[in-house]
Amino acid sequence: MESEKEIIKLRPHHLLCTQGYSGKGYDEKFVLNMTYMTARMKEDAGNLRML
């Protein structure tokens, strides 16, 4: 049996932020997290839920 993936909960502005995100101009911790989250959003688009 395949395990369920965690649902990613987003506010509408998060989608806008990902459109222009390039990983520049932010601290290292933010870049690592945002890079991870944008990759997850692309990979798991079916698990996105708007708040």
List the helices and strands and how they pair.
Blueprint: E1 8-10, H1 12-20, H2 28-43, E2 48-50
Parallel strand pairs: 1-2
Short description:
Helices cover 49% and strands 12% of the residues. It is built from two helices and two strands.
Protein described:
Helix content is 49%, strand content 12%. It has two helices and two strands. The chain has helices at residues 12-20, 28-43, and strands spanning 8-10, 48-50. The chain is globular, with a radius of gyration of 12 Å. The N and C termini lie far apart (29 Å).
**Based on the structure, what is the oligomeric state of the protein chains?**
single chain
Largest sheet data: 2 strands, parallel
Helix/strand/pairing category: mainly alpha
Distance between the first and last residues' Cα: 29 Å
Count of runs of 4 or more consecutive helical residues: 2
Unreliable spans: none
Radius of gyration: 12 Å
Mean pLDDT: 79
Strand proportion, as a percent range, falls in 5-15%
Tell how many strands the DSSP assignment holds. 2
Question: Numbering strands along the chain, what is their spatial order in the largest sheet?
Answer: 1-2
The helicity comes to 40-55%
Topology order in helix (H) and strand (E) letters = EHHE
| Shape assignment | globular
